[in-house]
Amino acid sequence: MFDYQSGALTFTPTKIVDSNSRIEVEFEYNDSSYPHYLYAGRVGSGNGCFNFEASTIVEGLDKDNPLVFEWNDDWKQSVRGAGDDDLGAIASGVETVEPGKGDYVWGMSGTDSILVFSYPDSSGIPNGNLQVSFSLDSTGGYERVFDDILLAFYYKWIGEGTGNWSPVRHIPLPDRLVHNDVYAELKFGRVSLKSELAVSEYDRNVLSPENDGDNVGLAWNFAGNWGDQSSDRLSASFSTRRIGQDYRSVSKEKEADYNYLWNLGDIPNGSETAIETSINAKPSGNISINGSAGYLEKGDHLASQRTGLTGKWQILNNVSLRGEFNQTNSDNKNKDMNTIRSIYSGQFLTLKGLIKPGYTIRLEKSLTDIGMYDRDEKRLYTHDISLHSKPTDNDEIKVNFSYRGVDNEQNNINTIGSDSRIIQGGWKKNIRRFGGFEIDLLRSFTTTIDPEKDPLTATSAIINGMYRPRQSAWTAQFDYLLSTGTERTGAKVATFIGEGRGGWKREGDRYVPDPDGDFSIREVATDTLGRVSRAEINGRIQWTSKRKQSSNKNPAKFPLGISGGTFRLSASIATSESDPIKAFYFDPSSFTSDMLIFSERRIIHDLNFLEGNPKGDGRLNMRWNEIQDKANSGGERSNSASASFRIRRWLKKDLRLKIKPSWERNIRQGLTFDETRSDVQIGRGEFALEFNATKFRIESDLNFGYEERHDPTKDIVVIERDWKTGLIWKLYHSGSVRFDGQWLNLTSNRKSPGYDLDLGWEIGNNFVVSLNTDYNLNNNMKLTALYRGRWRGNRAPRHEGMIEMTVTL
User: Fold this and answer.
1) Domain end residue (candidates: 147, 170, 193)
2) Residues with Cβ < 8 Å from 300, sequence gap 6 or more?
3) Residue 538 lies inside a defined structural domain of this protein
4) Do 421 and 459 lie in a common domain?
């Protein structure tokens, strides 16, 4: 049972979902109760100094052709009277059906008629004569109950106003948005001005004239810049914007809020007014100063003022000094709540020298006054001392000490306070070309000291190296990571990654080492509370005939029947294992816990075979996978095998034949009793003829396939076969025109006019038409039009369109 209003899908006892069932789910970003339409147009003009652009977008839902229900007079009248209330349009959820096809019957509770769930008989046949759709309702009289025997939910009457469900359907409302936007930009000298005006008209319910007084919304912004902040010694910027209470944007994305700078919470669908300005000065190449101020108002009762100042001084390219001040004052219009947030920070860094010390201090204060007597103040301060040294190119040392403290004061009484010390350090050593080895050693540690807790120390060691001796066909490298924690964390992780790679290549009559060869082995192992490991082996052999095909009178026949040319064989084996992973399971009904042991093993085998010459090529690919998942319940084994074969051969100079059959089988089997739970086989084939001429190419493909499903868990073995065929024609002309019978495309690359036509169909009786026209009226004007229509069986069509004109002055 589908409940489109609440987005719920319920499998009832009378509608069993088995291997014969098919469920198709389509995801759309808009309401799926109605077809969606979108029309847009845009016109613009510009010459670099002055740019102008205007656009119109109409987006909405087709009220005349709902997708999930059919209109009747009662439903339309309910929607007309609902206004903009999403839950205001209500229809009865009770539908009378033939006896034996419903799940509910009418009953009595006192003098009131109620709905009573009708249990199916022993064979699963329903006994009711009512089909009922329930919706969430805080004043309803029904509750949803899970039946342990049927393993399904049903709805039970518990009393008027005491439940959360009612036998009604909420009819979705069709909406529409019309958005108009005008943008202008003016540049002259070092000054640039930008302005934008947008008007929106959003009707939440196009069938109802009620609540339409707030449909129109207005938004605008204006910004100006003087100078370039990155290059000019003096620059400034100014911006202001206003978003009306009823304005609706066409953007589907959520814009980031100004919580950090402005300390205001998010107010959905609220108005906004903002003014921001900044001045940047660079008296010299080593000194920079930035000042900023702003005002922000969101909603009808919250406002915020912000000021900031930042300065940076670099002395003789050796020492860097930086200071920052930022303060935000937020209050409401009633003046009974006020918050002041201040940030002070300073930084000292040494840029050169054998040992480069650094120091950073940061103080953040937050003061909140609520009413006359309630006052809350919080102070957060941080001190960071760092030492960085790189005595040689192969050695590097880093040490950092941090002290952090928090003080809370409420109504002039110090209530909560804490501080912590964090020490971090690391040492890195590089050994280069030591007997063919290149090794990096990295050791790091972090210690946190809290007066109220035991010290917490975490250490890690990383060793990575590579062995690549000269005159060798092989290289080897490894990484080893060991991370440990205190007894309080109980964490210990060790990971090893090893990889070897190399091979040989043939030059003339002999083989020479190839460091970048095509044979490799890789091992990954991780020890935590359990064990996880993975191994991979990959190899490839390639041989190229020395003699040309034309001069070889008795060419050796390869397995695929192609003479001479190249021969390549590749194979890979990959295994992974995790055993055991321990987890505790808690049963709330019995208040007991149990330990589950999981293990997983994966084995993958790949074999690829390729041969070819100028007259054609052949390819054979085989793959076999095995996955074992084991738990306390017995677990499951999954085996899959696939094979594909392809051969392409030139029959004549311009005519080529391609044959490509493939086969795939997937088996799920229980580990405890080796019972087969499912068996699926899929076969496909492709037969193609390709004709190449000087200016065009024609390709004809015939596709066929079948799918066979074997489900032994049923009393009767069910074997399903589904044969599919398809014919594809493709035409290519000088790279500018393409015709495809599966998706018909016609494209012209001429500058004026131009067009792009797409016609096609999809599985499920879907038909799609797309038209894209790009027409150059003259050297300065271009007109673009786009239309896309989609027909899906007996559902209403969906249309999208856009018209755009571009003028260059």
Assistant:
1) 170
2) 270, 271, 333
3) no
4) no
For residue 549, what pLDDT is reported? 38
Give the model's confidence band at 614: pLDDT under 50 very low, under 70 low, under 90 confident, else very high: low
Amino acid at 248: R
441-464: pLDDT as tens digits:
666 666 666 655 666 666 667 777
Phi, psi of 80 (to 5 degrees): -65, -35
The answer as to whether 296 is a domain residue is no
CA distance to 20, 52, 102, 172, 325, per residue, from 16 (Å): 10, 61, 14, 28, 67
pLDDT for 111-166, tens place per residue?
A: 778 999 988 877 777 888 898 989 888 888 899 888 877 778 889 998 888 888 99
Is the pLDDT assigned to residue 195 strictly greater than 90? Answer: yes
Terminal-residue alpha carbon distance, the chain:
60
637 pLDDT higher than 80: no
Amino acid sitting at position 808: T
**Residue bearing tokens 């924690």:** 485
Structurally, how many domains does the chain consist of? Answer: 3
For the chain, the average pLDDT equals: 70
Pairing of β 696-711 and β 718-721: antiparallel
C-alpha closest to that of 624 among 601, 644, 603? 603
> Residue 73, SS3?
helix
Confirm if 566 and 542 have CB atoms less than 8 A apart: yes
Asked if residue 483 is part of any domain, the answer here is: yes
Residues 414 and 449 in one domain: no
In the predicted model, is pLDDT for residue 56 greater than 50? yes
Predicted confidence (pLDDT) at residue 325 exceeds the cutoff of 90: no
Domain end (from 170, 196, 219): 170
Q: Which of 358-362, 708-712, 787-791 has the lowest mean pLDDT?
A: 708-712
Cis status of the peptide bond prior to 580, with omega within 30 of 0: yes
Q: Could you tell me if 392 and 359 are in contact, meaning their C-beta atoms sit under 8 angstroms apart?
A: no
Q: Is 95 helix (H, G, I), strand (E, B) or coil?
A: strand
Residues 486 and 378 in one domain: no
Contact predicate 202/174, CB 8 Å: no
- Left if phi > 0, otherwise alpha if psi is -120 to 50, otherwise beta: which for 565? left
Q: Are residues 419 and 508 in the same domain?
A: no
The region of weakest confidence among 13-17, 283-287, 382-386, 399-403 is 13-17
Q: What is the DSSP letter of 254?
A: P
- Sequence-distant (≥ 6) Cβ neighbours of residue 102 within 8 angstroms: 96, 118, 126, 128, 129, 130, 131
3-state secondary structure of 267: coil
**Stated length of the chain:** 809
Residue 576: predicted pLDDT: 60
The answer on 460 and 412 residing in a single domain is no
* 8 Å CB contact between 477 and 464: yes
Residue 476 burial (CB count, 10 A): 18
DSSP states along 374-412? EEEEEEEEEEEEEEEEEEETTEEEEEEEEEEEEEEEETT
Q: Quote the pLDDT of residue 520.
A: 64
Domain membership flag for residue 487: yes
Identify the band that residue 238 occupies on the pLDDT scale cut at 50, 70 and 90.
very high
Which residues 6+ apart lie within 8 Å of 42 measured at CB?
Answer: 53, 54, 55, 56, 802, 803, 804, 805
pLDDT for 184 equals: 92
Looking at the fold, whether 444 and 332 belong to one and the same domain comes out as: no
| Residue with tokens 């930009």, as numbered in its chain | 185
Same domain, 400 and 337: yes
Residues 493 and 408 placed together within one structural domain of the fold: no
Structure-token pair, residue 108: 């009595």
Range of the domain at 524: 435-528
Query: If you count DSSP H runs as helices and E runs as strands, how many of each does the chain have, helices first?
Result: 2, 51
Q: Measured between alpha carbons, how far is 128 from 125 in angstroms, rounded to an integer?
A: 10
pLDDT level of residue 101 (50, 70, 90 thresholds):
confident
The overall longest dimension of the chain from CA atoms, in Å, is 106
